[in-house]
Amino acid sequence: MINYMGINIVNILAISVLSYMVYQNEIIDAKMKRYFLLAIGVTILVTASEIGTVYFEGTGKSMRICYTIFNVIGFSISPIIPVLLSAAFCNRRFSFKNLFTIPLVINFVFTVLSPKFNLIFNISSQNTYERGNYFIVYIISYISSMLVLLKETVKATGRYENKNRFTLYLIFVFIFIGTTIQILMPDVHTTWISVSLAMTIYYAYFCELSEKYDVLTNLFNRRAYEHELQRLEELENAAIIILDVDDFKEINDTYGHQCGDQCLSGIGEIIKDTFGNIGSCYRIGGDEFSVLSESATEDDILHTLSDFLYRIETYRTEDSRMPWVSIGYAFYHKSKVPIENVVEEADKQLYNYKKQHKLNSR
């Protein structure tokens, strides 16, 4: 018992340090920070309640109230932790009002009523724990919360263009196995160590992503672009596409920087929706974007370009402030020229396109 309590106390101290690191982090966005801190806070509370259950178990009738309270805390709020983690890396306003969260509410009610009706758990006259007749409700709520986490994990891999997707899947499998062990074998206390480690890994993963991700456009940034160029240079073939927003300074000067940001965000979304099917998308400058692909053919690019320009034109009919976007592309062949020359060639094609488009617009 003492060993287990000691491990959990160290666990609480460790994730308390993690919470301080999250709080001090100025890179991750406010929503992610808020839900990470909530998840850590609930984990600390549940871990402390489990320490309490271990300490007070079998201590006699006089401690029955304390033992019961700690069990109520643990069973009632522990299933919400995966949901809070899901909310942390969901890139939109997360809604707790969905079918998957209904079992969490039912479990909370059943747990609060358990001291009187022995639903989720039962505390014997000797102050020992037994599973209640409706313990399955807790299991269902746990599975539901893990399904929420799995759903958002899958969405996150798509949002980040499936880069390092196996890392996210491995974290999910780790937390699922670690928490399931204790459900199947109650005497093996693996849950909160697993959850704490998983939260630390999740945090490290999203800190790394934050350094490679442009928040405004939801595309990868210049740093990620440079890294990917180095990787493509080792391949036999690759395609490099450069996009540039026409007269973007005039948009900022005429309509303000907020409008300019809205235009960049909209263009970034269109780039990702279209070119994301053939390569990885980057914002590499203030109004400059790129798409890098190791497999796209010229037919692929021309087909995608047609779709992209149609989407831009549609956007411009809805909002006349939306600028035009010029584009150039070139193909890298390892045996012929360095990749830097290919980037220059794509740039030249872009400015020829820009020049021709301005002439045609007169």
TrEMBL record:
GO MF annotation, one: diguanylate cyclase activity
Origin superkingdom: Bacteria
Keywords for this protein: Membrane, Transmembrane, Transmembrane helix
Protein's UniProt keywords contain Glycoprotein: no
InterPro entries: Diguanylate_Cyclase, GGDEF_dom, Nucleotide_cyclase, Rev_trsase/Diguanyl_cyclase
Spans through the membrane: 6-23, 35-56, 68-90, 102-123, 135-154, 166-185, 191-207
Domain GGDEF: 236-362
PROSITE patterns named in the record: GGDEF
This protein's name: Diguanylate cyclase (GGDEF) domain-containing protein
